[in-house]
Design a protein that fits this description.
Blueprint lengths: L7 H10 L2 H5 L2 H5 L1 E3 L6 E3 H45 L7 H13 L3 E6 L17 H9 L4 E4 L17 E8 L6 E9 L12 H14 L7
Antiparallel strand pairs: 1-2, 3-6, 4-5, 5-6
Helix pairs in contact: 4-5, 4-7
Length: 225
């Protein structure tokens, strides 16, 4: 039933602006009947308000559970990152750093494939395996990365550094840079047979942080500035 010349918006505006209306006509609150969202039965206004309140509380509980879960996941990631960083800091022999970076990264974050190469290493390290095999194309590619690359393995040359490169479906490639220069001195490659493990849609903030820590540790292999 509608009131001639008066729309629902005008009625709603009147009720909002005139809260004392229901104080003068309290019996209307008891008489009002609404349709329950859990069936076609009619319920009182008070019952409908209780249902809405229960639904709102349920929604808040779900949000709290999600926040707790995300907090626990973030704490676990922070713990893994801490252990990986600690392993790098405790490595006394600089020539062992590449192996430690890769091995502990794979262990802490359950990464199936990982490898790295550096170039421009100081003379005592220039002949070691990690300082070999980075072509000019790979170096140019690393220098072009403003942020880590995440996506499908499109036959990237650096993926040949990984074990069983033919099985790698998705990769993350992280440039290594010394804080004093923007030029890349290496490339860290993470690979997975899972095509969704590293996708273009995923954020790169965490990978960039991994690159910064790895770069800081591996900079001990470079000539003194």
């Amino acid at each position: 039933m509608s009131i001639p010349g008066v729309g629902e918006e005008e009625i709603a505006k009147f009720l909002v602006e005139t809260p004392e209306f229901f104080e003068r006509h309290a019996e209307l609150l008891a008489l009002a009947r609404l349709t329950s969202p859990h069936g076609q039965r009619a319920v009182s206004l008070q019952e409908r308000q209780m249902e809405m309140l229960r639904e709102r509380i349920k929604g808040l509980e779900l949000r709290i559970l999600q926040m707790v879960r995300h907090g626990q996941e973030n704490e676990a990631i922070a713990d893994r990152l801490h252990r990986w960083t600690r392993a790098i800091l405790l490595t006394a022999n600089a020539s062992d750093l590449p192996e430690v970076v890769v091995r502990e990264l794979k262990h802490e974050f359950m990464i199936p494939r990982a490898a790295l190469r550096i170039w421009g290493a100081a003379d005592p390290y220039a002949a070691l395996r990690f300082a070999q095999g980075a072509t000019d194309d790979v170096r140019s590619f690393a220098a072009s990365l403003a942020q880590p690359y995440c996506g499908p393995n499109s036959g990237f040359e650096a993926c040949n550094w990984l074990d069983e490169p033919a099985s790698v479906a998705s990769v993350a490639m992280i440039p290594l840079r010394h804080y004093r220069t923007p030029d890349a001195f290496g490339l860290l490659v993470l690979g997975s047979p899972d095509p969704t493990r590293y996708s273009a849609e995923m954020g790169t903030e965490f990978l960039a942080r991994v690159g910064e820590i790895a770069s800081a540790g591996l900079s001990r292999l470079l000539p003194a500035f």
